[in-house]
Write a structure and sequence with these properties.
This protein is mostly helical and about 160 residues long. The chain has one domain (about 5-155). About 70% of the residues lie in helices and about 0% in strands. Helix 1 (about 5-30) crosses helix 4. The model has no long low-confidence stretch (mean pLDDT about 90). One zinc ion binds next to helix 5. One zinc ion binds next to helix 1 and helix 2.
Length: about 160
């Protein structure tokens, strides 16, 4: 297989992870693993959250795919591992750094897309309990949030 195919596999894995994370967040983190996610909605003192365990969900499969792919010289498994790793990095940068600002990087970054993901996630955090949630995705944002941010930025331009 050509190199191009592995790029497609990695990007496909990345896109799949956005959907999978939505499902996981909606039905697992707000479901039977709520006890791990609760402190992300109801802040407790301290720098770390139980919610941080969810990093393992990205880290362990990424590590396994890359390690096993290298051992068995299976390049499409490495490509899947690369896609998982990229998604884990995106999750860290977008959710932890850009949205929640747990690390003081890119604080001045601002464009309509950034404002949209921040707004959509803010709407997610408006709900302090596990029920009646909204906006469970991260990078892909529903139209109603995009429209709201678009309307705001048009209004602010005047
Ligand atoms: Zn949540
Ligand atoms: Zn959050």
């Amino acid at each position: 297989m050509s190199f191009f195919v592995y790029i497609i596999i990695a990007l496909g894995t990345f896109a799949f992870m956005e959907g999978f994370s939505w499902w996981l967040h909606r039905y697992v983190m707000h479901g039977f693993l709520w006890y791990l996610h609760k402190d992300h909605h109801q802040k407790v003192p301290g720098h770390f959250e139980k919610n941080d365990y969810f990093f393992l969900i990205f880290a362990i499969p990424s590590w396994l795919c890359i390690m096993l792919g290298v051992i068995y010289k299976n390049y499409w498994v490495i490509a899947i591992g690369a896609g998982l790793t990229l998604y884990g990095i995106a999750y860290f940068l977008v959710h932890e750094v850009i949205i929640h600002q747990r690390i003081k990087w890119f604080r001045r970054i601002d464009n309509r897309y950034i404002r949209t993901v921040r707004w959509a996630h803010k709407m997610h955090h408006r709900h302090l309990d596990r029920f009646n949630g909204e906006s469970f995705g991260m990078l892909w944002v529903a139209k109603k949030y995009r429209d709201k941010v678009k309307a705001d930025s048009i209004r602010n331009r005047k």
